[in-house]
């Protein structure tokens, strides 16, 4: 389910154009939007013509705490209107132009897109760049998704268990820079807080049954199966009790020694339940995964670009066994394995399903944020190694993707999901003044 947002919407008109036709179009738009359960709609029901009406609309949107405003140029209109609305409710704006109607007596009936141009120019020249535009009969869903990302980050309660992994300086964050940019606050916890947390016996049974049903567990002991189920319940209870939206975990090197198993398999099954867990204390990748989830991408997977083959133009999106089990290709047999940490690994192992993929990362450099993103296709392969992985061919070619990663200094963890969310991330970047790596 997508992140729910509060959307203000208003239609601007002028009597010198066909405002009656614009009003009819506006009513139809409102009727359609009211059926969208992912939107709480706050409409100004009557078209706005004068500045005093725009001021009233802006105050109304502020009172309702909208997350964004869709400003429809029903016809060309006065330039005061969007500026008055923005003055009283400083939220991201969708400038929405309507396709022109057939001529009636040799006269332009709406001149809507010219109104969009007017509004964009006034906003830009007044220093407001958090807008985007569309010309369509329907609302821009990518704009709505970008707003969902902004909202989920601002409201996110982020936890880090332990710290970043040993030596992974590149995944560390400046917490106050993160707060300044997106509104996120990070709470820090120690590993033993989870080690010693009280598990829920019913959930332990649930997870043990799920493990035995989902995975071939011949490669690990019954005690490790039990320990994995217990750990899954401990982490789940901890997340729920603390009210966390993300938990980034320092999963090595101390975890296996402190709890007798590494958390990879437990993280895999918890992510299949919809929890956002980031390996190796990587908060930024966890935030990207949360953004993916907010816009409807189910079960994000944190992955490394690995097994690069420049000759055959593919790479594996791989990690040590944390992908949600529902992403298995349905052909190979999912396993739980112990291939590192002196036999205490307990990691999931399977090939991930085929299909269109989107990989992205919100990445920080000295407190400044930028976005890396690419699209590609996961293709079938045999289960030939441990961990969870997908064989991917990238739309822009592997060499260009690798060049972009390496020369931008982007950290080595990416959020991977199925589908294409490129446009939503581009609009999010514009609205939040975040650089897009090109």
Features:
438 residues; alpha/beta; Rossmann fold; L-fucose Isomerase, Chain A, domain 2; 2 domains; 6-stranded antiparallel β-barrel; 5-stranded parallel sheet
Task: Walk me through what this model shows.
It is a single chain. With 438 residues, the chain is an alpha/beta fold. It has 2 domains: 135 residues, Rossmann fold (3-Layer(aba) Sandwich); 285 residues, L-fucose Isomerase, Chain A, domain 2, CATH 3.40.275. Helices cover 37% and strands 24% of the residues. The protein contains 14 helices and 18 strands. The strands form 3 sheets. A 6-stranded antiparallel beta barrel has the order 10-11-16-15-14-17, surrounded by 4 helices. The chain has a 5-stranded parallel β-sheet with strand order 2-1-3-4-5, sandwiched between helices. It has a 4-stranded parallel β-sheet with strand order 7-6-8-9. Helix 3 links the parallel strand 3 and strand 4. Helix 2 runs parallel beside helix 3, helix 5 packs across helix 14 and helix 9 packs across helix 11. The two termini are 31 Å apart. The model has no long low-confidence stretch (mean pLDDT 96).
Using only C-alpha atoms, the radius of gyration works out to: 25 Å
How many DSSP-defined strands?
18
What's the CATH architecture of the largest domain? 3-Layer(aba) Sandwich
Structure annotation, total helices: 14
CATH class of the largest domain: Alpha Beta
CATH topology of the largest domain: L-fucose Isomerase, Chain A, domain 2
Number of domains: 2
Strands of the biggest beta sheet: in what spatial order?
10-11-16-15-14-17
Percent helix range? 25-40%
Looking at CATH, the homologous superfamily of the largest domain is L-fucose Isomerase, Chain A, domain 2
């Amino acid at each position: 389910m997508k992140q729910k947002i509060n959307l203000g919407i208003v239609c601007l008109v002028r009597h010198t154009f066909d405002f009656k036709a614009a009003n009819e179009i506006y009513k139809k738009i409102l009727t359609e939007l009211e059926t969208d359960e992912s939107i709480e709609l706050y409409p100004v029901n009557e078209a706005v013509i004068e500045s005093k009406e725009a001021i009233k609309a802006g105050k109304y949107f502020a009172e309702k705490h909208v997350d964004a405003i869709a400003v429809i140029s029903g016809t060309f209109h006065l330039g005061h209107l969007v500026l008055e609305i923005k003055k009283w409710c400083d939220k991201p704006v969708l400038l929405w132009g309507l396709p022109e109607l057939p001529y009636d007596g040799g006269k332009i009936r709406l001149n809507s897109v010219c109104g969009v141009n007017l509004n964009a120019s006034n906003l830009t020249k007044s220093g407001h760049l958090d807008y985007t535009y569309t010309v369509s009969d329907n609302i821009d869903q990518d704009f709505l998704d970008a707003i969902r990302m902004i909202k989920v980050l601002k409201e996110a309660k982020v936890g880090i268990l332990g710290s970043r992994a040993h030596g992974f300086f590149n995944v560390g964050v400046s917490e106050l820079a993160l707060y300044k940019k997106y509104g996120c606050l990070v709470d820090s916890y120690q590993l033993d807080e989870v080690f010693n947390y009280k598990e829920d016996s019913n959930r332990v049974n649930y997870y043990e049954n799920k493990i035995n049903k989902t995975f071939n567990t011949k490669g690990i002991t019954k005690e490790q199966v039990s320990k994995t189920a217990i750990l899954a319940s401990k982490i789940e209870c901890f997340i729920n009790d603390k009210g966390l939206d993300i938990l980034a975990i320092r999963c090595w090197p101390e975890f296996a020694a402190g709890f007798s198993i590494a958390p990879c398999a437990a993280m895999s099954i918890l992510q299949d339940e919809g929890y956002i867990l980031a390996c190796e204390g990587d908060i930024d990748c966890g935030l990207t995964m949360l953004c993916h989830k907010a816009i409807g991408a189910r079960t994000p997977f944190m992955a490394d670009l690995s097994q690069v083959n420049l000759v055959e133009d593919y790479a594996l999106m791989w990690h040590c066994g944390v992908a949600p089990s529902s992403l298995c290709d349905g052909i190979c047999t999912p396993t739980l394995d112990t291939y590192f940490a002196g036999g205490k690994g307990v990691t999931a192992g399977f090939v991930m399903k085929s299909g269109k993929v989107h990989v992205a990362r919100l990445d920080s450099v000295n407190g400044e944020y930028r976005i890396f993103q690419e699209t590609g296709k996961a293709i079938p392969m045999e289960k030939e190694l441990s961990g969870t992985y997908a064989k991917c061919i990238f739309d822009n070619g592997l060499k260009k993707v690798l060049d972009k990663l390496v020369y931008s200094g982007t950290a080595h963890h990416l959020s991977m999901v199925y589908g294409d969310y490129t446009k939503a991330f581009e609009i999010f970047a514009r609205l939040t003044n975040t650089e897009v790596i090109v």
